[in-house]
Amino acid sequence: MRIKEHPILEFPWMKEGEKPKLVSFIFEGRTMHGYDGEPISAALHDNGVKVLRYSIRFKRPRGFFCAIGRCSSCLMNVDGIPNIRTCITPLREGMNIQKQVGRGKIFNRGK
Ligand code: FES
Questions:
Q1: 4, part of any domain
Q2: 95 is a domain residue
Q3: Which domain holds residue 22?
Q4: CA spacing 20 to 30 A to 92: which of 29, 36, 54, 80?
Q5: How many Cα atoms are found within 13 Å in the side-chain-facing hemisphere of 57?
Q6: What is the reported pTM?
Q7: What is the DSSP secondary structure assignment for residue 90, as one 8-state letter?
């Protein structure tokens, strides 16, 4: 599930004639792969991850929404830093990404 064309957004990592560089990253302890420079949330979607954070008040799941950095639906912890808009933050090799709960607590399953 990868977005290849969009009426507004450009995808510089998918230039015609160039092969995008595959990189690996860690999502909640699991190794995943995506293209160098693509938005983190796009790479997560391609790996089957639809929930990116949980809302502040009711802890409801939130996912990819505006995809242009205008809402807060995609805020995640990236390399230990909370509140990163993953729809506009480029993916890099070795990033450590976690779901965010509320204002920035790191998501821990069952702990
Ligand atoms: S999806 Fe809206 S800011 Fe990222």
A1: no
A2: yes
A3: 12-102
A4: 54
A5: 0
A6: 0.85
A7: B
DSSP secondary-structure letter at 66? Answer: S
Number of structural domains the chain divides into: 1
Regarding the beta carbon of 44 and ligand 1, being less than 6 Å apart is answered: no
Q: Tell me how far apart the alpha carbons of residues 84 and 96 are, in angstroms, rounded to a whole number.
A: 12
Distance in Å, CA 108 to ligand 1 centroid: 22
pLDDT per residue as tens digits for the range 42-94: 999 999 999 999 999 999 999 989 988 999 999 999 999 999 999 999 999 99
Q: Whose CA is nearest to atom 3 of ligand 1?
A: 69
Is the shortest distance between the CB of 85 and ligand 1 below 6 Å?
Answer: yes
- The answer to whether 88 and 68 have CB atoms below 8 angstroms apart is yes
DSSP conformational letter for 25: E
Residue 1 lies in a domain: no
Tell whether ligand 1 has an atom less than 6 A from the beta carbon of residue 66. yes
12 lines ligand 1 (CB under 6 A): no
Residue 48 domain-assigned (yes or no): yes
